[in-house]
Write a structure and sequence with these properties.
Blueprint lengths: L3 E2 L9 H10 L18 H18 L5 E6 L2 H13 L4 E6 L2 H10 L4 E7 L21 E4 L1 E2 L4 E2 L11 E4 L16 E5 L10 E6 L17 H6 L9 H16 L2 H22 L4 E2 L10 E5 L3 H13 L2 E2 L10 E4 L6 H15 L1
Parallel strand pairs: 1-13, 3-4, 3-5, 5-8, 8-9
Antiparallel strand pairs: 2-10, 6-7, 9-10, 11-12, 12-14
């Protein structure tokens, strides 16, 4: 029996996708082999790769003047690649809203002058801070659109004018409609809403590829290298891209991003409504900035939190412990989590609190 998996990542995948992949595991179509065995230069794989790219463009309404890249190294590698590729004046602004935004800031500080434009650290990252200024000479302005650990999200994105807005969307991509044209670069690790771990999506405006400083980098670290090669400068993570394609097809069948956003909003409301009324469990994030994907909460008692995680696992609800940095509890309800899974969790929480 499959359990309800509330992991923050690698996260649950749609059951329909897993079933489709299992049927094609040994032999893909009439290829006579698995996708895992294919040459990335073969016609069969090139069709998969193109379909994945085209589907993502369709789902996110990505304009023609943006490149879609399938890379490796996760968001953590992007923390370094972004400042190395976008630096012209040697300066960038950062909004610090949690652990991953902090890591991006610290990594960029190795390469350029990283300026903290706003931070919610003084509020334990329970909200999105007010942004009042953008450095006119910044090479880019960096945010993390959704914060997995503390459960906040940008409900409105800052207007950065001519300064390219860069967003780590690892845990928010494809969960709600975003206007790609507001951003110079979007990046996301796959292991939450795109597919299994192993591939990283980068969506970059073409003008940002033309940087004289970036040409001094090793070829593999240049975005232009991968853009010119159609993400096949080296052997790409072929199976992860194939799985992403299946997830994109599944998402399209659900009404696309607009369709899944309605489902996500309804799912989150079920859990948030319970937390707001519960006599035992309390939400962590500020109500005006609540994430649709990651919902941290607590009983206020460490021992009771641990008891809840243990009993929940027995009942078929896995990975409800909070991040190791903050403790407590957390339910990650990405696109693949069905509404009935969230409702079942709430029903269990009601029984637990008595």
């Amino acid at each position: 029996m499959r359990i309800y998996n509330f992991s923050a990542g690698p996260a649950a995948l749609p059951q329909e996708v897993l079933e489709r992949a299992s049927k094609e595991l040994v032999e893909y179509g009439s290829a006579g082999m698995s996708v895992m065995e294919m040459s990335h230069r073969s016609k069969s794989y090139e069709d998969i790769h193109k379909a994945a790219t085209d589907l993502l463009r369709e789902l996110m309404n990505i304009p023609a003047n943006y490149k879609v890249l399938f890379l490796q190294g996760g968001a953590s590698q992007q923390f370094a690649m972004i400042p190395m590729n976008l630096s012209k004046n040697g300066k960038a602004d950062f909004v610090i809203t949690g652990e991953w935004a902090t890591r991006a800031y610290k990594e960029a500080s190795r390469v350029l002058n990283a300026n903290i434009a706003a931070s919610s650290e003084d509020k334990k990252f329970a909200c999105i801070p007010e942004i009042t200024k953008v450095s006119a000479d910044a090479d880019y302005f960096h945010i993390c659109s959704n914060n997995t650990i503390c459960g906040t999200r940008f409900t409105e994105f800052p207007d950065t004018g001519s300064v390219p807005l860069v967003a780590d969307m690892s845990s928010g991509i494809l969960s709600e409609v975003f206007d790609v044209q507001k951003f110079g670069l979007i990046y996301a690790g796959a292991q939450k809403n795109i597919g299994p771990a192993g591939v990283t999506v980068v969506i970059i405006r073409e003008d940002l590829l033309e940087n004289e400083n970036a040409k001094k980098l090793p070829a593999f670290m240049q975005y232009k290298t991968h853009a010119d090669a159609g993400s096949m400068y080296n052997t790409p993570p072929t199976y992860s891209i194939y799985m992403a394609k299946l997830c994109f097809e599944w998402l399209k069948s659900k009404g696309g991003v607009a369709g899944i956003q309605k489902i996500n909003e309804a799912k989150a409301k079920i859990l948030y409504d319970f937390l707001d009324e519960s006599s035992l469990f309390k939400g962590i994030a500020d109500k005006s900035h609540r994430s649709l994907m990651n919902i941290p909460f607590t009983t206020g008692d460490e021992a009771k939190d641990k008891q809840f995680v243990k009993e929940a696992a027995v009942a078929g609800f896995e990975n409800l412990g909070g991040h190791r940095l903050v403790g407590g509890l957390r339910a990650s309800i990405y696109n693949a989590m069905p509404t009935e899974g969230v409702q079942a969790l709430v029903d269990f929480m009601k029984k637990f609190q008595g």
